Amino acid sequence: MTTTTRTNPTPSDGLTVHHDGVTIPLSRGGRGRPLVLCPGLNSTQDGLAELIELLRRDHEVVTFDLRGHGLTSAAGRYSFEAFLGDLDAVMAQVGRLGFDTAPVLVGYSLGADLAVHHAAGHPGSVAGLVLIDGANPVPEPFLTEDALPEFRAMWAELAARQQAERGTPRQVLLTAEHLLDLNVEIDAVRSEILSRYERIDGPISMIMSTSMAGEGGGRAARFNRNWRAGIERLVLRRPHIATTWLDAGHGLVFTHAPQVARIIRRAAS
User: 24 with 85: CB under 8 angstroms?
Assistant: First the structure.
C-alpha cells in the first residue's frame, strides 16, 4: 500500500499583507504558471490542503485565508466589501512578486464571487478565472422568509462546532449572526452579478455541484434547481463560459479534490 503524505500550506517568510487592520499571511509553493486560490466562507487554506497540493504540481500557487479565518486575523467587520478589499490587497501584493504572467484566479464559493468582482474592477490583473460553486446569478434568493429559521439554526450549529477549532489553522471566528448577515448580503450581490461578468474579457471556467443544497426533495430540490437555473441564465448571456458539473455537494473541493484539480489545470493551461 502506498501512503501519500500531504503537506499543509504554510505562510511564506515575509509574505504578509496588512489591510484594513487585518493581517493576512500568504502561502506560496509549487512551480509553473501562477495561480491564486481564494477560499470561501467557512473554509481555510488548511482545509483545502489536498487541492492546493495537487495544483502545485503544475502551478506556483499563492493562497491565503479570508479575514477571521485560519491564519488571518480577526476583524471589526465582516462584509462582502471588506472581504473584497482583502482580496484586492492580496492581488496587489501578488502583482509585486515578479511573475512573468498574470495569475489565474480561482475562487471557491464566496471566493468565486469575490474573484468576479475583483476581475471586473481590475482589468488585466488576472489571466483568467476558475469559479467553483459560487458567483451564481440565481434567479431567486435562497434566504426567503420560509427558509430563514432553518438557515439560522444551521449556522448556529456550525458556529458552535467551529468553537472546537479555535487556535488552529482551520479556525473560523465568525458568529452565527455574522454568517446570517453575510449570506443575506451574498444573495443581494448575486442578484446583480451578471453586470460584473459583462466587464470581464478573459476566459472563465466554472465548476459546479449538482447537489449544492444536498440530496432529497422538498427545499433541497428547489434550491438545486435554482442553482442550475442560475448557471443556465449566465451561459445564455455569456456563452463562452465553460461549465463543468460534478455529481457532488457544495463541499466538492474537499470530497472531489482530484477531479476539481484536473479541471482547474485544464482550464488554466
Answer: no
- Nearest in space to 267 (alpha carbons), one of 108, 106, 112, 99: 106
Could you read off the pLDDT of 243-260 as tens digits, one per residue?
999 999 999 999 999 999
Evaluate if residue 6 carries a pLDDT over 70: no
Q: Is the dihedral of CA 50, 122, 109, 261 positive or negative?
A: negative
Integer angstrom CA distances of residue 173 from 56, 80, 198 = 28, 16, 34
What are the tens digits of pLDDT across the range 205-249? Answer: 999 999 999 988 888 999 999 999 999 999 999 999 999 999 999
Beta strands in 77-203 (DSSP E): 104-108, 128-132
Picking from 20, 12, 78, 77, the residue whose alpha carbon sits closest to that of residue 45 is: 12
| 130 grid coordinates | 476558475
Contact yes or no for 139/230 (Cβ under 8 A) = yes
Residue 7 has pLDDT above 70, yes or no: no
Contact 132, 260 (CB under 8 A): yes
pLDDT band at 12 (very low <50, low <70, confident <90, very high): low
- Report whether pLDDT(1) > 90: no
Taking only Cα atoms into account, the Rg of the chain, rounded to an integer number of angstroms, comes to: 18
Could you give the CA distance from residue 15 to residue 220 in angstroms, rounded to a whole number? 42
Spatial CA neighbour of 44 closest among 171, 163, 181, 162: 171
Distance CA 71, CA 63 (A): 11
Model pTM score: 0.95
Range 11-267: architecture per CATH: 3-Layer(aba) Sandwich (3.40)
Q: Which residues pair with 131 in a beta bridge?
A: 107, 206
